[in-house]
Amino acid sequence: xxxxxxxxxxxxxxxxxxxxxxxxxxxxxxxxxxxxxxxxxxxxxxxxxxxxxxxxxxxxxxxxxxxxxxxxxxxxxxxxxxxxxxxxxxxxxxxxxxxxxxxxxxxxxxxxxxxxxxxxxxxxxxxxxxxxxxxxxxxxxxxxxxxxxxxxxxxxxxxxxxxxxxxxxxxxxxxxxxxxxxxxxxxxxxxxxxxxxxxxxxxxxxxxxxxxxxxxxxxxxxxxxxxxxxxxxxxxxxxxxxxxxxxxxxxxxxxxxxxxxxxxxxxxxxxxxxxxxx
Length: 278
Description:
278 residues, elongated, D-Maltodextrin-Binding Protein, domain 2, 2 domains, 5-stranded mixed beta sheet, 10 helices, alpha/beta
């Protein structure tokens, strides 16, 4: 190998080292200060319709407004991580390197690493089918006639998870809502079971999907409400604030603050093409 080639390879290796160092640094949580008022670090990713964190340095949306109001009432400073993948946020919460997450469903695994503070009722998942598919799906028994797609890693309710497990030979997992919609759109599968609001948003924002999907009438809630939570890491240096945060969240629910802030994303009317079957 010539001397010039060796120099180029050395320079390339140095540039790669610098690049990986920058990426690793960008993923590290913002340092927390112990001086003065409590400073709690909220770990979050982009979550359409709830907190927007694409192409902006500071997130915005109903979840951000709620967390800032909670910080104001409870007397702490709210700090944001850089945009961070949800799976990484869970790891950081388990290690006590970040303090807060939001918009979380309850699970025993999550409860083991964080205090889960309920603050708003969830919208049940929906079954999305092609608009041209005229089959009426209103009961769980009718799902056995369908091939379905679900989202890998998404936390469905225990009842729905059990239902899917019973029908597992006819269920395919994919990594994203968009991938699931594409499979249904192309007729490879009959329906996508996915979060209602995020999936409706994905349909509205994808060219060529307008009037191509509808929501089946089946109700996966089984008449039982479920809630989303704010998570406070059990290893956070501010874990002792849990009773205070719970108290102020309860007050925000009672005085209508939570309902007001979340009115748009949880009660937004779906487009006519997304309306349930009559």
